[in-house]
Amino acid sequence: MRQLVIDSASEACSVALLDAGVVVDRRHEVIGRGHAERLVPLIAELDGGGRADTLFVGCGPGSFAGVRIGVAAARGLALGWRIPVRGFSTLALVAAGAAEEAAAAGGALVVMEGGHGQWFVQPFAADLTPRSAVRSLLPDDAILIDDALVVGNRAEAFVARRGAGRALPLLPDARAFSLLPGGALFDDPSPIYGRAPDAKPMGTA
Question: What are phi and psi of 190, to 5 degrees?
C-alpha cells in the first residue's frame, strides 16, 4: 500500500512516496512562492509518477495560498486516481520532524510564521499528540509559553526573543509523515487557516 504525502503550507514544497512506512522517493524544495507551479511537477517526478493507494495532505495552518493549493491538488489527484484522501495538521508534521528531540525533551513547542506579524504556536507532548489547540499570537504573547524545545521556521526568533530554550529550525517535511500518531489524521481534508482571512467584504471595517 503506497502512500503519497504532500505539504505546501510553508515556504517548503514537500512530497514523499511511502510504502509500509518506508520512504520510497521524495522531493523537498524551499521555494518561498510558486507552489501552484511546482507542486504537481514535483509529484510527477516521484517513482511511478507518484501514484499511490492513499493520499495524505497537510492542511495548514500556514500560508493561505499554500494551504489552498495543497488541499486542492490532493483532492484533484485523489478524484482522478480514485483513491481516498486524508488530511493532517502541518504543525503536527513539523513536530514529527523533531520526534527524537521532542521525546528526549518531554515535548516541543512548534512555532511557525503566521503572517501579519503573528506566529502560529502549538505545544506537542513527547508522543507528538497536541497539548492544546493551535493559536495565532503576536511574538510577545507567544513567548509566554514555556517549553524548553522550540521547533519550526520561527523557532530561532522565538528563543532569541525569550532569551531561553533550545531552537530547532525546521520546515514541514513529508518524509516525517510515518512518525505522526494515528489520531493526527482526519477525513475530508480542508484548509486549517489558524486565523481570520486577510480579505474582508467590501463595506466592512
Answer: -145, 160
